[in-house]
Amino acid sequence: MQTTLVTPALLAHHLGDPHWIVLDIRHDLMHPERWGEDQYRAGHVPGAAFLHLDRDLSAPKTGRNGRHPLPSAYHAAATFARVGVAPETQVVVYDQNNGMYASRAWWMLRWLGHRAVALLDGGFDRWVRESRPVTTDVPSPRETSFTPSKPLPVADAREILASLPKRDLVVIDARAPERFRGETEPLDPVAGHIPGARNRPYAANLDIDGTFKDAHTLRREFDELLGNAKLDRVVHQCGSGVTSCHNVLAMAIAGYPETRLYPGSWSEWVADPTRPVATGR
What we know:
Elements: E1 5-6, H1 8-13, E2 20-24, H2 35-42, E3 49-50, H3 73-82, E4 90-94, H4 102-111, E5 117-120, H5 123-129, H6 157-163, E6 170-173, H7 177-180, E7 198-199, H8 215-226, E8 234-237, H9 244-253, E9 260-261, H10 265-269
Parallel strand pairs: 1-5, 2-3, 2-4, 4-5, 6-7, 6-8, 8-9
């Protein structure tokens, strides 16, 4: 069972394996409507099904629940069943390169209790660089029955707000440093970060070629970030609950137990002007 990463070589060995499902999660936040699907139709890993970040892996937005609200467990399970995920299925997810979007699908399946899910390290770009097969054929639906386990616990804005006076949650923010510091904000109406949060940009999990750093390096870096924090008090967030999943995955690669996600993240936090905002380091 593969639970964190797979290489292109391993996935290529399992192409056509009925017990393996491949999901294409390519997306572009600046061109969210069609970019990912257009890329998929231009060429994808053979047998891969496409899932759209907004339409398939997010719930409807209300203006107060963030840019990529987490669907209910029922709706998320129905989405994965529609593309062929069953309890015994090995799932491989990928996006265009660094796992920024595919890690959301990885985390959602883990959230639902499906452990046999791994990310294609280096994504579609690495797959193509290694001259692996690409097709434009869209596979026939493989709908199955997928009943989730009790979902893993997540954090919400109320819990984080209540923790601020004592700083008894360790909030890790996966956004770029300039967004964390409040120097720029290209996507949300307010710049800054949750008071007391620590910055771990998701890109820090990657080597120069866009693949994940090795487990030893990730462990050392997260140990330095966390200090003596208790792991059950660690909460990951980002702009909208997507790139924070990258940090959850990186910690899993490093051998840590499950850590929690704040799915609403910054875009939900700032939807309520009474919630405090910090800037700077």
